Structure formats: structure tokens, C-alpha cells
Amino acid sequence: MQIHFVLLISRQGKVRLTKWYSPYSQKERSKVIRELSGVILTRGPKLCNFVEWRGFKVVYRRYASLYFCMCIDADDNELEVLEIIHHFVEILDRYFGSVCELDLIFNFHKLMMYLKNQAYYILDELLIAGELQESSKKTVARVIAAQDSLVETAKEQANSLSNMIAQATK
Amino acid sequence: MGSQGGWGQSKEFLDLVKSIGEARSKAEEDRIVLREIETLKRRIAEPDVPRRKMKEYIIRLVYVEMLGHDASFGYIHAVKMTHDDSVFLKRTGYLAVTIFLNEDHDLIILIVNTIQKDLRSDNYLVVCAALTAVCKLINEETIPAVLPQVVELLGHPKEAVRKKAVMALHRFYQRAPTSVSHLLSNFRKKLCDNDPGVMGATLCPLFDLISADASSYKDLVVSFVNILKQVAERRLPKTYDYHQMPAPFIQVKLLKILALLGSGDKQVSGHMYTVLADIFRKCETSSNIGNAVLYEAICCASSIYPNSKILDAAVETTSNFLKSDNHNLKYMGIDALGRLIKISPDIAEEHQLAVIDCLEDAITIDDSSPKVPRVTVDTVEGNESPSMTTKVLSLGKEEEDPDDTLKRKTFELLYKMTKSSNVEVIVDRMIGYMISIIDNHYKTEIASRCVELAEQFAPSNQWFIQTMNKVFEHAGELVNPKLAHNLMRLIAEGFGEDDEGADSQLRSSAVRIPDGFICRNSDQIPSAFMQASFDGSQLHGLSTNVRLRIVHFLVNVICWVLGEYGTADGKYSVSYIIGKLCDVAEAHINDDTVKAYAMTGIMKICAFEIAAGRKVEMLSECQTLIDELSDSHSTDLQQRAYELQALLSLDNRTIENVMPSDASCEDIEVDKNLSFLNFYVQKSIEKGAQPYLPESERSGMSNVDNFKNPYQHENSGQSLRFEAYELPKPPPPTSIPFVSSSSRVTDIIPVSEQVHSREIHQNPPTSGADALALEVKLRLDGVQKKWGRPTYSSVPAASATVSKENGVTHSDEATNANSQTRDFPYNHRRQQVEVSAEKQRLAASLFGSSSKSDKKAPSSHRPARGGHVNSERPPATALLLSEPPKEKTSASVPPPPDLLDFSDPLPSSATSEDPFKQLEGLVDTTIAPLSGNAPTPDIIPLYGGTPSINSATQANIRNASAAASGVVTIKKGPNAQDALEKDAVARQVGVQPTQNNPNLFRDLLG
């Protein structure tokens, strides 16, 4: 099984996060996003969460105002991918708080770019080269936490006030 | 919140993110981003940017890039950041480069060193970051640089590192299988890793390895089964549970692997039954993930050697899926059903109602097409069990909100179940659906499926022509031009063949149907065209056609038919037809192809007239056209015009030889040796001319290359050359004998010697050409490796050819053998369910009760000869039931007539791939000869001067059009091999290509 790309788009069609595991040029990427958001955002809630697209399949799932999409080969197990999405979301959720908060975070501009980096790292722990590498939530969380602590040390060395504030609010 | 990592970004960045978040339109967003790019460009170029600041810039670049803009100006800074000592910055650097760069980027070489260093780091997080980058960035050339370290890391104490090392190795295998071929045993070892995470990750590479070569991993079956058993029994740590399912993702992967290993292997499959039964029994159906595992178990059950108990469980689960109101599950159910009917066709019948539900769903939006009877919801509502009512209710919902994906899946299933007893209903519905959708990609696909089914199962010529009409009418511009050629061939064969009975039958039915058709809908263009083309008796319809916008390749067909048969029945005067053809050419002033067709049509008519001893008067408009085309920018048009003029001056005997009437289907024998020129050569030598020296004996090798170059450029321009290298060309520089391409066939398959040996012996291998072939080979090797595993868009045709070239397998046959499994005669016990008459009728027509074996062999899909076809096919059912699909692929060399069946990939290969993708290359090449026709001085091209798109066929059929069609044959692209191979086989078994194996031409026509 290979996931060709992961796409997070808002209900308005705005891109929130992209990760491309297969080579796409910048131009193709924009086209893919445009095409898919056209198809996916218009689908009703009762319909199935799969879309056939250019000989591939895109599995999507909506969380609040955010759509998580993954593109897979036509003969893959769609339900499994649907659950990989959910798995990812649960890990994000575990990391950031409740699902509702997830929505909040994703809309919360100040946290946007921060979250994005972090989400990238989490995604990197979950998928490598389009393959699911880790299916244990705890393991992913542990590695991410280790990375965070690392970041902490690095930052403490470097200074700073904001860090102290962050520590205080923890 | 457990997160502090990213704070510290400047206010500026926050504002940027905020303003983009609040942007009202894409244009506004773009404006903001462009401004941001300007800022970043300026800032990033400043000297001595603080590292911390730089990190922020790079994250902003990532953001810009994500929003679809080019941030390449900052890539180098991201690369630099990976060199940073601070882990914090390094990680950002790695993140950015993995997002920015792909494996072929020039900057990668600058990172390799850093990666090497980081892989040795004491800090496992650094190693992890480096390994993540390795997975994304390391390409074939740089693999050796990091490979030893990655292998070493397989034994790292931290499981996170081991896992990533496995994934990196897997990635290497995907990129360049040969580079790690000596390390594959590591994957086996890692399967026994203490950490379940590492074991789970190892399943990814193993899956790939096993799909490539299942036989060498059979010994692992017991281990896999054991692991699966343990997983299912919850022996793994609780952390791997997901929604109360024990490690479902690992289960799914294991099931996939087992499906591969058990395919066609009774003994191996025997190990799996127990654990599969357990999964079917225990798996909970309330959660999505449980159903995902169940679905995978069904796939596995349908792939391995069938076991009735397991199959029953699979069928049971499938029917639960189908009964579900959840569209996701319905979808999976339809898919599962498609897999199961391959094994036991009866299942479809048991679930006919559920399938019809999905189909009716499809009909509800087909109102635009009055031909499809609409089964309304009301008719169902009156009489039924509670479950029926819920279905009806869900149907009602779907009506407001049609689920396209589900519908497509259903059509895919129907496509798989099509046989001659239900083809009419199914194709009718497909066309109805085709009309209703706008998505061109899918429209194309469904149109080609309609055509395929129609060709394969058409119950009558009448129906076939009607169906083709409809397809042309509604998706004409999307249908591959190949169809037009098929049509031409059908017409040509219909008229030009010795099988008079079928011929006249076709003709009469062809005439009759369009008549009725025109009466009913006078505005249906293609039907008018059909009329015109089939007997030339409705020429007045043609001008209407031309005035209306008509698919231009149809015009091409019309021109060709008019040229070939316009005067055949004598109803219309020559000048009338020529006038029409001139009209056509004038109406398509910008379309060289149409003009070329028209010109050739005129030429043929003139030729036939002169040959019949009549005088041809040139109409003034025709003369104008000829004059105009003589000055055309297109060399092809010019040549045609000149050829016509030259032809007019010939006497009738010559013409009769050059362009025999109604002979487009006759075979051509090419005197490849050009022995008819011997006399001329002899005379020249006597007069003191230099005798010809073969290339090998000449000193200047380079001009050989020059000589061949034009064709090679054509080839490499359009795709990689995967076909085998041609044998050296025969010496005479005046000809490019096309037969040389057919002699290549001998390289590929063992054809009986006497057929081709003559050609081979007459071509002593010349070292020049050998060197050239070698050169091509070398270059290809590199390319092939690099792209060896197409990850994104696979080109099935090409890969098929590759494998053939290597002499490994005939994957075409494999595909075909596999897909043939859908051709089952169905034994139908009628299942009486209380449903409305409408629904039952529909069910009856779809699932039919015809148990007679009414399959037609895929190769003999021409309706014209449906008569003798039925007996031709081997008893497929028995074969398939006793012998699982995979094994059939290894059924190496079936007896010749079967080989014809098997080796024809066309009717079946379209199932999952986009068939048009495969053909893209061919379309190009078929056009090519029109514009790139080598100006040959001889009259010969006139002779093959039927539509030159068609001339590849013509080349094989008619003699003498050596130069022009030789070019075509050589240039035909990847499929040339298949076609030629089939041709060779056909010859071997003594089959006339025109008669018993129409598919042959389908390929050749490309």
C-alpha cells in the first residue's frame, strides 16, 4: 500500500497541510488541490468517503471544518485508510487536547504555523514514504515528546522570555 | 497542552498566517503570498541572518510553498540549516528539505554528507531525523553512500531507529531493487524483532518483495499465520489496540501478504483457513476498522485457494456490507462481490437485489436519457419485507443526493459480470449513465468499456451498430480515434471479405438499421454518418453532417469510406462524391488530417474510375483544391496532391495494379530484398557503378547513425523504447523495409523458423547496427532503473513490454488470464423473492437465467462472425474453478489458437487502468506519419494511399508501400511488439489476420 499524498483542506478550500509522497510538480500540486477540493467539498455527508480520481482513490474524512484526504491506489483498502486518517487525528488530538479543540486549533491562526510543523513531525512518525510505519499511538506520542524535550533544551540554551512564558502556562 | 516547540515566531509571521487565514478569495491570498515572497527574498539574502531568524524564514518558506508558490530561492538555506549543530535547527532543516526537494534535485548531493554524519550521531533523535530525510531524498546514485550505515542501524538499540532503518531500506528497494538485493534477508530477520512496531514496519517491504516473487517466501507462511493468530488473540501490547481491535493495521497488512502467498497454492492456503475463519468469526462489525479487517479477509479468501467454509463466511460478510445503509460499507460490499464472483458466480445472483438497489440509484439521475427505462421507487414500495423498506428509504435519500462513487463501483461490478445474456441491459445502462455525467475522465473510461463489452458480447450486428452509434453520439470526441479505425476495418472487412454470407448480412443489417434510425431521430448525426458510410446511399446526409459540428475523426472515416466504397454500388456519380469530398476538405480548412483523408478519398475514386476504363473529369473545385494543397505547408498534403496528379496521368492497367479496388483488407507480401530491382542494379554495375557495401564493411560508421536517427528521435521523443532492438537493416539505402520490424519478432517469441528465417538470413548482422543497438541498450538500462518502479503513474503497456523484453513473463497474458476469470457462464437458480415485477424483470435481464455457455472468445468479438465463434472457446469455467487465476499465468505456452486468445490484452486490460493512458503514445505516432511522410519519389505510397493513419495495417496487408509504411511500423511505439508478436503467431498458426483474429488489427491500428 502506498499513500501518494496527504492533504488537509478547510471547508473553504484553503490548504492547511500537504505532504507529497509521490513526485508532483508545484503546478500539478495546485491542480490536484483545486480538483480535489472541488470534488470533495461538495459531497454530501451521507455519501461514502471515497472518491475515484484519475485512476486513484482519494479517501477523505471531515472533522469539524477540516477535511483530511489521503490518495491511494485504486485497489487499496479504503476503510483501512479511512482509519489511518482517524488514527492520525487521534494522535493529533492526544497531543493537542480534545477533538473540539483540534478544530479550534486549526482555526486559530496564531497556532497555525506552529501546529503545522508539529503536525508534520507527527505525520513523519506515522507515515514514511507513504507507508504506515507505526500503528501505536503511544509510540508516536513518545517519540514526539522526546523531540519536544529536545527542542526545549535547545531553546533553553538559546534563551528566552517566550519560552519561560510557555513553561509557565504549561 | 503538551507543546511549546514552535513559539518564538515573530509577530510578522503571525500576522501573515492570520491574514492568509482571513483572506476572502484565492486572489487575495495570492497577493499576500507574493508580497511575502518578496519580503523573504530580500531578508534571506541579507548577510549574517541570525540562525534563529533563518529558521523562521524557512518555516515561512514551507508555508509559501504549501500554498502553491515557488520558494526555490530559499532551498539552499534549508540545506544549509541541516548542517547546523543545533539539533533544533537541524530538525527544521531536515523537515524543510524533505518538503522542498524531491529525489532528483541537484541540491541533494549537498545533503548526503550531512546525512552520513548524522546517521552516526549519538542522539537517536538526530538519527531519526536523518533517516526520515533518507527515505525522502536519497536517490539511486546516493544509495551506496548511506547504505552501510542504514544497515548498521537495523541493530540500533532504539526501536524507533530500527523501524526507520527498515523503512529506509524498503525505500531503497523501491528505488533501485538491485542496490539492496543482497540485503533482503535482513527483512526476514527483522520480522522477528522484539518490538512489534519494527515487525509491523517490516511487513511493508515484505509485502513488496512477495508481490514481486511469492514463491521464494512460501516458507514464511507459517510465521505470518502465527503472527496473525497472535495478533488476533491480543498478544500484542495494548498500545497497538485501535478501537478495541487488536493491532488492526498489522492484521490488514498480514492478510494482504497471505493473499499473495496463498494465491493458487492449495497447500499454503491450507495453513490459513483456521486463522481466516477466526477473523471472520471474531471480528466485530460495528466499527469501521473491524470492517476494514473483514474486507481484507474477504480479499484474502477470494485470492487464496478456495475453501467452501471460508467462502461462505466471506459471502455472509459481503452480504452484510451490502445490506448496510452506510455507503462506505455498501461500496466495500460491491467491491468484495466483484472479487467473489470470480470464484463463484452464483453469489451475484444471491445479492441481485442489493446490486440493483445501487443500480437504480444510478438510474435516478438518468432522466436525460429516455431510452433507459426508469424503475421508480414507487414500484418497489408496495410489497416487501422490512429490510426492503429500509432499502427503499435509503434509495429515496440517494435520489436527492446521488452517490457517484458508489454508482461507478456498481458499474464496475456490472462490467465484470457482463455476458452475452445481459450485455444489452448493462451497456444500455452504462450509456445512460455516460450521458448523464460530465467528468470527462470517467466518461472516456465508461465509453471505452461500453465499446469493449459491445465488441465482445454483441448479440447482433444490429445492436452493435446501434450501440456504437450511441457511444459516438454522446462521447464521440472522447472516444479514442482507434475506434474509428476499428469501424473502418469493420466496414472494409464487411465488404472486402470472402465470407460472403456474413458480409452481406452485415451489409443488409447495416443498411436497414440506420434507415430506421434516421426516421426516428433525423438529427442524429452519427447515424446519418453510418448510413452514408455503409452503403453510400445517403450522401445527402453527409453535407448536413459537415455543416454541423461533427467529431472530426468521424469525418475521416466518412472520407475513407466514401473513397473506398462511395462508387461501389454505382448509385452516385463520381463527380458527386468528389464534390462532397471537396466540400469536406473546404469545411475543415484548418485540419490537415481531414484534408489528407479527403484527398486520398478523391485519389482512390479517381483511381477506381480510371481502372474501370472511364474518364475522370476534374471538377473545377477539385482542381482548385489540388492546386491549393500542392502549395500546402504540410508536406504530407503536398505529397498527396502530387501523387493524385501523377496518378491521373497513368494508364488504367498501371492504376489497377497500384490501387486495386476494394482491396484494403488484402494481404501484402513485401519483397524485402527488393529483388525486382536486381536487374536495375545489375545494369548500373555493368555501367561501372560502385557495388553496394554493407555498413559493416564501410569505414565511416557515423553515417549509419545518421541514417537511422530520424526514426530514433521520433521514438525517444514520445516514450522510452522498451521493445527489442531491431535486427540490422538490409543494405539498400533506398528502402526502409518495414519487414525488418516483423523480423524483430523472432527475437521475442519462438516462431517457427521457416516463417522468418528467410528474412534473417538475408540480413547479415552488421556491426554498425549492433553498436547502435548496444548504445541504445546502455542508455535504456540507466533509465529503466531510475524509473523502474513507477510510483505515481504506472504505464502498464510499457511495463508489459519491459518484461517481455527481458524474456521474463508475458504479463499481458497474465492480465488477460486473470481478467478472463470474469467471463463466466452463470448457472442460475432462480431465486424467488417477493419484489415488484419491475425489479424482477430488471434482475432477470441482468442476472439472466441463461446457463448456456454463451461466451464469445475475446478475440472474436466482431459481431459479423458471431456464428462460428461460440465453439472456439475452451471450457473456461472448469478451468477456472479447478485452477486458481494466478496459476494460469504460468500456463506458459498454450496451443496456438488459445495463445491468440490469451495474448490479446485489449478487451480485458481496461478493467482497472485507464486504457487511454496506454494509448496516448500510440495516438501521437499514428498522426506522425501524416505530417512526417518521407517524400518518396515513387508511386508506391499511392498504392497504400488509403487513410494513412490506417497505413500501418495497410502495410501489412498490401505490398509495396515500403518506404512510407515502413516508417509507420517502426514508429509504432511500445505496442508494436505486441501487435507484431500476435501477427507472427497468427502466421504461425496459419491464421489470416483479416479473418479469424480481428484483434490483431485493433492492435496494429493502434
Commentary on this structure:
The complex is a heterodimer of chains A (about 170) and B (about 1000). Chain A is built from 6 helices and 7 strands; from the N terminus they run ββαβββαααββαα. Chain A has a single domain, classed as Beta-Lactamase (2-Layer Sandwich). Chain A has about 170 residues and is of the alpha+beta class. Chain A starts with a strand and ends with a helix. With about 1000 residues, chain B is mainly α. Helices cover about 65% and strands about 0% of the residues of chain B. In chain B, helix 7 runs parallel beside helix 9, helix 11 packs parallel to helix 13 and helix 49 packs across helix 50. Chain B contains 52 helices and no strands. Among the domains of chain B are: about 150 residues; about 80 residues, no CATH class; about 260 residues, no CATH class. Chains A and B meet through strand 2, helix 1, strand 3, helix 2 and helix 4 of A and helix 1, helix 3, helix 5, helix 7 and helix 9 of B. Chain B: Keywords: Golgi apparatus, Membrane, Protein transport, Transport. Chain B: Pfam families: Adaptin_N (PF01602). Chain B: Belongs to the adaptor complexes large subunit family. Chain B: InterPro entries: Adaptor_Complx_Large_Subunit, AP4_complex_esu, ARM-like, ARM-type_fold, Clathrin/coatomer_adapt-like_N. Chain B: Adaptor protein complex 4 (AP-4) is a heterotetramer composed of two large adaptins, a medium adaptin and a small adaptin.
Entry summary:
The complex is a heterodimer of chains A (170) and B (1006). With 170 residues, chain A is α+β, with helices and mostly antiparallel strands.
List low-confidence stretches of chain A: 99-115, 153-170
- Intertermini distance of chain A: 39 Å
Alpha-carbon distance between the two ends of chain B: 62 Å
Secondary structure tally, helices of chain B: 52
* Global mean pLDDT of chain A: 72
Would you list the SSEs of chain A in sequence order as H and E? EEHEEEHHHEEHH
Helix share, percent of chain B: 55-70%
GO molecular function (chain A): clathrin adaptor activity
Keywords (chain A): Cytoplasmic vesicle, Golgi apparatus, Membrane, Protein transport, Transport
Membrane topology (chain A): Peripheral membrane protein
Protein name (chain A): AP complex subunit sigma
